[in-house]
Design a protein that fits this description.
With 252 residues, the chain is an alpha/beta fold. The chain has a single domain, classed as 3-Layer(aba) Sandwich (Rossmann fold), CATH 3.40.50.150. The protein is built from 11 helices and 9 strands. The termini are far apart.
C-alpha cells in the first residue's frame, strides 16, 4: 500500500469525489435524528459536505485543499484544520459530527476527544468490520486490506466517554445506497469495475497499481464466469445488509 497523509490522500482522490460520493437519504436521516435539537454543528473531516444538515448552522473542518475546493456553492463555511487540533473554544457548538472519516485521522482517539471538547453532543459514523456480517469484497478480493483499520469500535466508544455514555446504532447499508463508500456496492459488484467508483474509495487509493489490476481482473473474471453469483447471488435480492457501519452518539 502507498502511504499518504489524510489530506494528501484526499487531494489525490477528491478530484472526482462528487461523481459517486453523494449522501444517501436514509443514512442522512438517521444521522440527523441523532443530532437531536442541536442548532449549531461542526462537521469534522467534512469533505465535500455530504450529510451536513441544511436546517442548522454548520461549520465544516477539512484539511484537504482539493476537497475544500469541491464543496458546492452555498455549502457551510469550511476551516482548514485537523480533527486532533480543532480551532474552537470549549463547548462552542451544540453538536459535532464526523462521517466516515475517523479512520483517516492520525490520532483517532485525540480527534474524538476534541469532538467532545468543542461540542455538547458528538455523532460519529464509523466502521468496524468485526461488528457486521461477512463481506465478500474484503474476504474474497481484498484480504487483509482492513487489518489495520483504526479505531476499533470499542476504542472509539472509550474515546467518546465510554459505554455508559455512548449509544451505538447499527447503520445497515441499503442495496441501492447512493453514497459510494467501500461496501456500498455489496449487491452491485459490477460497480467496482468502474475506475471512477474505485478512485473515490480511499482503500483503492492506497492500493498499488498492480494490486488494483489484480482485483479488477479477478472480479471481472468471476462475474463473467458466474462464479460470483454462484457464491453470493442471493445478496442481489436483499434490501439492506449490516456490514459493520455504526453510528456512535454521545449525548450532552
Amino acid at each position: 500500500m502507498q502511504g499518504l497523509t489524510p489530506g494528501g490522500r484526499y487531494d489525490r482522490i477528491g478530484r472526482s469525489y462528487g461523481a459517486t460520493r453523494r449522501e444517501d437519504p436514509r443514512i442522512a436521516a438517521q444521522l440527523h435524528r441523532a443530532l437531536g435539537d442541536a442548532r449549531t454543528v461542526v462537521n469534522v473531516g467534512a469533505g465535500t459536505g455530504a450529510y451536513e444538515p441544511r436546517d442548522r448552522e454548520v461549520v465544516a473542518v477539512e484539511p484537504s485543499a482539493t476537497m475544500r475546493a469541491a464543496r458546492p456553492a452555498g455549502a457551510a463555511p469550511c476551516v482548514d484544520a485537523v480533527a486532533e487540533a480543532l480551532p474552537f473554544e470549549d463547548r462552542a457548538f451544540d453538536a459535532a459530527m464526523a462521517v466516515l472519516t475517523v479512520h483517516h485521522w492520525d490520532d483517532p482517539a485525540a480527534g474524538l476527544r476534541e469532538l467532545r471538547r468543542v461540542a455538547r453532543r458528538a455523532v460519529v459514523l464509523g466502521f468496524d468490520q468485526h461488528f457486521g456480517g461477512p463481506s465478500w469484497l474484503t474476504d474474497d478480493y481484498l484480504p487483509g486490506v482492513l487489518g489495520k483499520e483504526r479505531p476499533a469500535l470499542p476504542e472509539a466508544v472509550a474515546a467518546l466517554g465510554g459505554a455508559d455514555a455512548v449509544r451505538v446504532e447499527p447503520v445497515p447499508v441499503p442495496r441501492d445506497c447512493a453514497d459510494g463508500f467501500l461496501h456500498a456496492f455489496w449487491a452491485r459488484p459490477e460497480a467496482y469495475l468502474d475506475p471512477v467508483v474505485r478512485a473515490n474509495i480511499s482503500v483503492f487509493a492506497l492500493l498499488d497499481d498492480e494490486a488494483e489490476r489484480r482485483f479488477v481482473a479477478t472480479l471481472r473474471d468471476d462475474l463473467r464466469s458466474g462464479a460470483w453469483d454462484a457464491r453470493h447471488g442471493p445478496l442481489r435480492d436483499r434490501p439492506e445488509l449490516d456490514l459493520g457501519y455504526r453510528l456512535l452518539v454521545a449525548p450532552g
